[in-house]
Design goal:
Helix content is 69%, strand content 0%. It is an all-alpha fold.
């Protein structure tokens, strides 16, 4: 008997074959991008809802553990919607229970970590790794508080210090305090990142570069871009590497009327990704019609 999620999916515009390929390759990110173009708040096709819940959860579990709480919450919502629209309860329930169990375990772990913070957010009882986890937890709801905790971690001058200084400034900027964060953001660019081999460390640097570029214009924008590209080449981390940074900088190039750079970014995204949001593809088409 075929699995209840077996194709055909009856996705629009011939997406079934592409989705099957992404699932066979465990390419959860591409599958998620494809399904997000299909699943809307009004979607009632239960199979699509279950598929999106599954690939979103797997992407976080396998690739982006920092996203696992939000992915689990989204999956629970999608699975409940699916059952409201006719998904077979006996088939969906085991997956829903597994997601809820994961979410419960994560929540308990987070509560235990947060409980180790002392009065006034004294982090003396936490290891560097525990404090880093607490920083990310707090950052979801209170970036100003997270900025202070990231700074406390950076002040320990351990192996997490360089990236933590960057994340402290980024958190402060997310709280709407860009001008207060700007000196530290600029200081981050002067630090030696060559000894930071992990991609998530270098992504922190790229996030700083992206934010500064979003607040720059004219000659300053061009100079910052060239510096970021040169630094990326030196670190074997081509700028910009992260998908969200690419999309944000594409939008910034358009607002700057830097059409040539926007086209180059569009081409790179098309070459590097198997799936792109349809709205982004439409913007690519439009920018190629622009007169330089």
């Amino acid at each position: 008997m075929p699995h209840f999620l077996a194709p055909p999916f009856e996705l629009p515009a011939g997406r079934d074959a592409r989705l099957v390929k992404h699932l066979e390759d465990d390419d959860w990110a591409s599958a998620t991008t494809l399904l997000r173009d299909v699943v809307t708040p009004d979607t009632t096709t239960w199979k699509w809802l279950v598929l999106l819940a599954y690939v979103r959860f797997r992407d976080a579990a396998d690739v982006m553990p920092d996203e696992l709480v939000s992915a689990s919450r989204e999956a629970v919502t999608l699975l409940n919607r699916a059952m409201e629209h006719g998904a077979p309860h006996d088939e969906v329930a085991p997956f829903l229970e597994a997601v809820e169990r994961t979410l419960d375990q994560l929540s308990r772990g987070e509560e235990a970590l947060l409980a180790k913070l002392g009065s006034g957010d004294d982090a003396g009882a936490l290891t560097d790794e525990e404090l880093e986890s607490v920083c990310f937890l707090v950052d979801r709801e209170n970036p100003v508080r997270a900025a202070k905790l990231f700074k406390a971690l950076a002040d320990r001058e351990g192996p997490l210090a360089t990236a933590s200084r960057a994340r402290a400034a980024l958190a402060l900027a997310r709280a709407g305090q860009f001008e207060a964060a700007k000196p530290e953001l600029e200081s981050v660019l002067t630090r030696d990142w060559s000894k930071r081999p992990l991609s998530d460390e270098r992504l922190a640097l790229e996030a700083v570069e992206t934010l500064l570029l979003e607040h720059a214009s004219g000659a300053e924008f061009v100079a910052l871009w060239h510096l970021a590209e040169a630094r990326g080449t030196a670190l074997a981390f081509p700028f910009p590497s992260a998908w969200p940074h690419q999309e944000r900088l594409f939008a910034k190039c358009l607002s700057q009327r830097d059409i040539a750079r926007a086209r180059a970014l569009a081409q790179r995204m098309e070459e590097e990704r198997l799936e792109l949001p349809e709205a982004l593809v439409e913007r690519f088409r439009a920018v190629r019609l622009e007169q330089v």
